[in-house]
Amino acid sequence: MLETEQQAFRSRSNASAEQIADLEAFRLRLVEANTVMNLVGPDSLPDFWNRHVWDSAQLLDLAPEAKTWADLGAGAGFPGLILSIMLKGRDGAHVWLIDSLAKRCRFLREVVDALSLPATVIVGRAEAQSVTCDIVTARAVAPMEKLLGYAQPYFQRGAQGLFLKGERAESELIEARKSWHFEAELAPSQSDVRGRIVTIRSLRRARSTR
């Protein structure tokens, strides 16, 4: 089953043999690490290639010219580690993997070092970093209203946002507009019919009416 899903991913993404090898090496490390700490739900591992890899890699189709990415609340490395594997070897490509939990960052750093990925792991709060990038992204971190607060400093330095969201994406945007002004576009996820990818531009905080 995993081999079939791997082949399906390779067909959809045009991944090279080297990228597939790196992704498989990452998968094996994730499976091992997940036995001692909760990085992802164990039930999601059999669907690794679609639920995690393709879900993450599809972002590249929406920002094909972007070279630098910041993944807020990077967790187990989705989407950031996947993006760094797919961007490996591209001139100027770099991904910042930012997470506030040190043990998750140790895992991320081990994978980055083992696979020689163009990525930097940062332990700390997302909104406290001074990273400049083309795209700021996140998956399963916080509702949109709060997530935009974490991402605001990156927008101020010129980034656009690409956020992986579920079936509540539209309602989260409605709620977020109470606190923020922004331009938003929604695209269907290629990995889950319930999912949405939210593009955010021109973010600024709304004036309080109090």
Automatic annotation (TrEMBL):
<feature type="binding site">
    <location>
        <position position="139"/>
    </location>
    <ligand>
        <name>S-adenosyl-L-methionine</name>
    </ligand>
</feature>
<keyword id="KW-0489">Methyltransferase</keyword>
<dbReference type="GO" id="GO:0070043">
    <property type="term" value="F:rRNA (guanine-N7-)-methyltransferase activity"/>
</dbReference>
<feature type="binding site">
    <location>
        <position position="73"/>
    </location>
    <ligand>
        <name>S-adenosyl-L-methionine</name>
    </ligand>
</feature>
<dbReference type="InterPro" id="IPR003682">
    <property type="entry name" value="rRNA_ssu_MeTfrase_G"/>
</dbReference>
<comment type="function">
    <text>Specifically methylates the N7 position of guanine in position 527 of 16S rRNA.</text>
</comment>
<feature type="binding site">
    <location>
        <position position="78"/>
    </location>
    <ligand>
        <name>S-adenosyl-L-methionine</name>
    </ligand>
</feature>
<keyword id="KW-0949">S-adenosyl-L-methionine</keyword>
<dbReference type="Pfam" id="PF02527">
    <property type="entry name" value="GidB"/>
</dbReference>
<keyword id="KW-0963">Cytoplasm</keyword>
<protein>
    <recommendedName>
        <fullName>Ribosomal RNA small subunit methyltransferase G</fullName>
        <ecNumber>2.1.1.170</ecNumber>
    </recommendedName>
</protein>
<dbReference type="InterPro" id="IPR029063">
    <property type="entry name" value="SAM-dependent_MTases_sf"/>
</dbReference>
<feature type="binding site">
    <location>
        <begin position="126"/>
        <end position="127"/>
    </location>
    <ligand>
        <name>S-adenosyl-L-methionine</name>
    </ligand>
</feature>
<dbReference type="GO" id="GO:0005829">
    <property type="term" value="C:cytosol"/>
</dbReference>
<keyword id="KW-0808">Transferase</keyword>
<keyword id="KW-0698">rRNA processing</keyword>
<comment type="similarity">
    <text>Belongs to the methyltransferase superfamily. RNA methyltransferase RsmG family.</text>
</comment>
